[in-house]
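User: Study the chain.
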Amino acid sequence: MFTIVRPMSIPSTPARGRPARLDRDRTVDTALDLLDEVGLDALTMRRLADAMDVRAGALYRYFATKDELLTAMAERMLAGLAATRTDGDWSERLATLARAMRTALLARRDGARVYAGTHATGPHTLGFAEALLGVLRTAGFGEQDAARSLMAVVHFVIGHTLEEQAALWQPAEGGGAADPERLRLAAEPERYPQLAAVLPTLTSGDFAGHFDFGLSLLLRGLRALEHA
């Protein structure tokens, strides 16, 4: 008895698609996504290249150094802020812009660390600065006072958000440098009675409340400057 053996059909191997086109925008987008995943300390050009399935050298076509990449990432984080709708008097409008910047930096893991120290000159960064200065100049601030007020507001936002994100990204098991429990244990009431008395506020985690309080003090000082 014979068995008829039919030729086996060999499945065709699907043609490999072309790798996604490498360009500046895609590189920045992927870098921001990777930042959210691994944090700034673990973000390297080699790791970014692996995530994009390209050779590390290919990235240097667009960014000669990691600092250049971080500057582009900082620029992207401020996208849309210049168009933030503001209402009220100049101090309320300034507060709205400051809160918008904080929100933008918080939207990315280590966002404030990425932004700090960069000197972006793209349309998002310059547009946001123009919006802040427009509020101040319209309120009657002179050029020098407006410039220094701009720096004071931006530096406050960055500094506060740096501390906020450091506290938020703690080891899951606790015990990190910013763990409030460490402060509670160290601030012995007998030795540090004033500090112990205010611990509930210091360790509350009400970062929005802390931010608004500091911002209100800053704006109060600017109002005094306005009438000087």
Q: What stands out?
A: Residues 1-19 have pLDDT under 50 and may be disordered.
